[in-house]
């Protein structure tokens, strides 16, 4: 991947080290090596898999591990340390092995199998100051896990560590002082907990082999349709389109893709469309070995395209040994429309809707394609849902100046549900409209319906998190936002912004500031994250830093108004909005 931009992601990093390793090796080299190896095989490695982690590297006595969330990282560490304590209880003192654990949550740089950056360095320093048999975490980790693990960390104060240019506030736990009385992950909400033992897949955009760049929308559309169908399966983790399509046009080993997206398998293929015929090649690849789990070529009439999509989905399910519920089987078999013209027009509109450019011209073209699709099939629920989302974007971005844009969106969303009651995107559209109508109870109900119909819908989980932030229960948003980040790691920066907002509205100012800084690193032109970072800094009394961030913000957007920004956010709990406003006011900067 040389020559490409630096790849980053937010990760929970765990650093472990065997206490007194050198001393034990000098006394009994063979015995120490044997006991340390047994510790890794019996405790550390199986639990890394159980909690969804990945070993980055090992040394003789240490391990660097990456987890998708702070909850998983802490739950793993508590489980390991509690198990080792129990194991040591039956051994002579000179045969006992103890480890230290340090955990940090931060932005990491990805280079092959390795990770680098400040987030990794801090985790290593925290490990060095943990007690033998204990865990030391940074403030952002402590506030991230909250009450979602069964242990409580004690404030260890601020410490200065080598090669880190700022004091770090640390929190500590040891099983002797706070024994675990329940499974560490028991408090995680089952509705949003990610099962780590289930199969996972990323669907790469199929190559357009038609010799006509204008057919790109078709190959992309079929790829997205397959993602949509797979996302309806609860026993499978499916990476969102945003993240898998980031590899479009790149020559990259699928094992690298799988590692970066955290999946066990990858689907890739190609599509050639000529007249009324279509040829589709598809192959499912095992991420660990690079071997083909399944491959097939389809030469069909275009009228069979929905049957081909259904076959591909079912072959994937069979190859990955995923069991479908009766409802899932019905939903993935249902064709969105039987009218090929309508489907083709819908794919063109959806491609524009998913694009990075969004202006009046793109809006008009998008709406035009969806309307034409409906003219060919008046019962096409997907097209009505597309119109609803397009008009919400018009309302948010003031593209047409239509004062009735939100009402128009609400109309099309309602029609989409009327035409297709089991369409996840229709319920997502209704929820989206309801948020801006400040009817958050309705938004919550509709988002939960979308999540039930499509358990891998990253947008729905992200929106569910937004709703918790605005409803006055901001810290409850974090599990939903973490799930969205897991399902759509390439689009994590947007969810990270809302994690920061959740901490800010919930009064967790240090975690909020750290999270907004992460978001700014990932989205350098953001004005919104800088504005809310200033509020967090105001609460922390870091006025000089707030003024520096304000100068950056005014360079990014000279017209930014904090008061206007806050007024747009649909908070239903005035105290949360006031808490954010008060933090900004403490800086003395103009609102």
Structural summary, described in words:
With 591 residues, the chain is α/β, with parallel strands linked by helices. The chain folds into three domains: 7-173, Nucleotide cyclase, GGDEF domain (Alpha-Beta Plaits), CATH 3.30.70.1230; 199-334, 3-Layer(aba) Sandwich (Rossmann fold), CATH 3.40.50; 456-591, Serine Threonine Protein Phosphatase 5, Tetratricopeptide repeat, CATH 1.25.40. Helices cover 52% and strands 16% of the residues. It is built from 24 helices and 14 strands. It has helices spanning 21-27, 29-50, 70-88, 118-129, 139-145, 216-230, 241-244, 254-261, 305-319, 326-333, 340-354, 360-376, 381-397, 405-419, 424-436, 440-453, 458-471, 478-487, 492-505, 509-522, 528-540, 543-556, 562-568, 574-586, and strands at residues 7-18, 54-58, 62-67, 99-111, 114-116, 135-138, 154-159, 168-173, 199-203, 207-208, 236-238, 265-274, 277-286, 292-301. The strands form two sheets. Strands 1, 2, 3, 4, 5, 6, 7 and 8 form an eight-stranded mixed beta sheet that branches. Strands 9, 10, 11, 12, 13 and 14 form a six-stranded mixed beta sheet that branches. Helix 17 (458-471) packs parallel to helix 19. The radius of gyration is 25 Å and the shape is globular. The model is unreliable at 179-196 (pLDDT under 50).
């Amino acid at each position: 991947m040389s020559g490409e931009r630096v790849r980053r992601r937010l990760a929970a990093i765990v650093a472990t080290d065997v206490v007194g390793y050198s001393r034990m090796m000098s006394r009994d080299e063979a015995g120490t090596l044997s006991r340390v190896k047994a510790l890794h095989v019996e405790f550390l490695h199986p639990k890394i898999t159980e909690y969804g982690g990945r070993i980055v590297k090992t040394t003789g006595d240490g391990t660097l591990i990456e987890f998708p969330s702070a909850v998983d990282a802490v739950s793993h560490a508590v489980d390991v340390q509690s198990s080792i304590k129990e194991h040591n209880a039956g051994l002579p003192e000179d045969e006992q092995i103890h480890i230290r654990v340090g955990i940090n949550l931060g932005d990491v740089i990805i280079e092959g199998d390795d990770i680098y950056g400040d987030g990794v360095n801090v985790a290593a320093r925290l490990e060095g100051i943990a007690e033998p048999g204990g865990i030391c975490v940074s403030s952002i980790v402590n506030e991230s896990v909250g009450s979602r693990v069964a242990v409580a960390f004690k404030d260890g104060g601020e410490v200065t560590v080598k090669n880190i240019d700022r004091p770090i506030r640390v929190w500590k736990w040891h099983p002797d002082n706070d024994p675990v009385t329940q499974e560490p992950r028991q408090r995680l909400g089952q509705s949003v907990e990610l099962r780590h033992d289930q199969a996972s897949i990323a669907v790469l955009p199929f190559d357009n082999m038609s010799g006509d760049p204008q057919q790109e929308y078709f190959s992309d559309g079929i790829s997205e349709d397959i993602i949509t169908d797979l996302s309806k399966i609860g026993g499978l983790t499916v990476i969102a389109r945003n993240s898998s399509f980031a590899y479009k046009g790149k020559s990259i080993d699928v094992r690298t893709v799988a590692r970066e997206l955290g999946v066990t398998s990858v689907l890739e293929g190609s599509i050639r469309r000529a007249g009324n015929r279509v040829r589709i090649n598809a192959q499912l690849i095992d991420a660990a070995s690079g071997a083909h789990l399944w491959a097939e070529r389809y030469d069909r009439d275009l009228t069979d395209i929905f049957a081909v999509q259904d076959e591909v989905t079912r072959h994937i399910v069979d190859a990955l040994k995923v069991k479908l519920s009766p409802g899932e089987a019905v939903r993935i078999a249902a064709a969105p429309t039987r009218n090929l013209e309508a489907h083709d027009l819908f794919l063109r509109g959806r491609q524009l809707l998913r694009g990075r450019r969004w202006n009046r011209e793109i809006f008009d073209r998008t709406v035009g394609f969806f309307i034409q699709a409906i003219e060919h099939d008046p019962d096409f629920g997907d097209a009505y849902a597309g119109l609803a989302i397009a008009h919400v974007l018009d309302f948010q971005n003031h593209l047409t100046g239509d004062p009735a844009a939100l009402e128009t969106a609400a109309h099309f969303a309602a029609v989409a549900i009327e035409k297709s009651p089991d369409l996840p995107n229709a319920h997502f559209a209704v929820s989206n409209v309801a948020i801006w109508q400040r009817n958050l109870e309705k938004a919550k109900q509709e988002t939960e319906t979308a999540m039930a119909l499509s358990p891998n819908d990253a947008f729905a989980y992200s929106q569910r998190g937004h709703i918790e932030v605005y409803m006055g229960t901001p810290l409850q948003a974090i599990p939903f936002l973490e799930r969205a980040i897991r399902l759509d790691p390439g689009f994590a920066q947007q969810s990270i912004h809302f994690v920061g907002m959740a901490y800010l509205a919930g009064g967790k100012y240090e975690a909020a500031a750290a999270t907004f800084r992460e978001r700014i690193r990932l989205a350098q032109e953001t004005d919104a994250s800088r504005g809310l970072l200033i509020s967090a800094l105001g609460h922390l009394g870091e006025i000089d830093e707030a003024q520096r961030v304000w100068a950056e913000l005014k360079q990014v957007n000279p017209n930014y108004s904090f008061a206007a920004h806050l007024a747009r956010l649909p908070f239903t709990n005035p105290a949360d909005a006031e808490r954010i406003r008060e933090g900004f006011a403490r800086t003395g900067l103009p609102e």
